[in-house]
Amino acid sequence: MNYFTWLVALFILVCVSIRVVQQFERGVLFRLGRVVGEREPGLRWVWPIIDRMPKVTLQIVTMPVPSQKIITKDNVSIDVAAVAYYHVTDATKALVAIQNVSSAVNQIAQTTVRNIVGQFTLD
To answer: Helix, strand or coil for residue 67?
Structure first.
């Protein structure tokens, strides 16, 4: 192989290996399936095939909670619509401990709305 072929192969390796983590994100580096650690914003080197680095946004997420038909303490039926705001504080736990963060937040928000509104009387 000549010098040009090696240069092209090296260029392709560098292009595939560099990841950009934005200021509002954190990257969680997995090496062969194990957590190596979180990566801060900037240019990050990732070994192709061996490493995987999903990114988790740390921005506040606005999630509409579907309309809930709730029966209050005094048997009055009402419809309640709500909005949930959340943000991830630990990117590693969000990826490793919870399968789907947005679905989990949506479910707990619906349950909380039903529990809180169900405690009131509307006489």
So the answer is: strand
Q: Residues 6 or more apart from 28 whose CB is under 8 A from it? A: 35, 37, 38, 39, 53, 54, 55, 56, 91, 92, 95, 96
First to last CA, the chain: 86
Cα–Cα distances in Å, from 5 out to 18, 48, 70, 77, 85? 20, 19, 68, 73, 52
Residue 66: name the closest of 78, 52, 84, 51 by CA. Answer: 84
| pLDDT one-digit tens code per residue, 21-66 | 999 999 999 999 999 999 999 999 999 889 999 999 999 999 998 8
User: Taking the complete model, does pTM exceed 0.85, yes or no?
Assistant: no
Residues in the chain: 123
**What amino acid occupies position 74?**
D
Helix (H) or strand (E) run with residue 105 in it: helix 101-118
Burial group, residue 4, by CB count within 10 angstroms (0-12, 13-18, 19+)? exposed
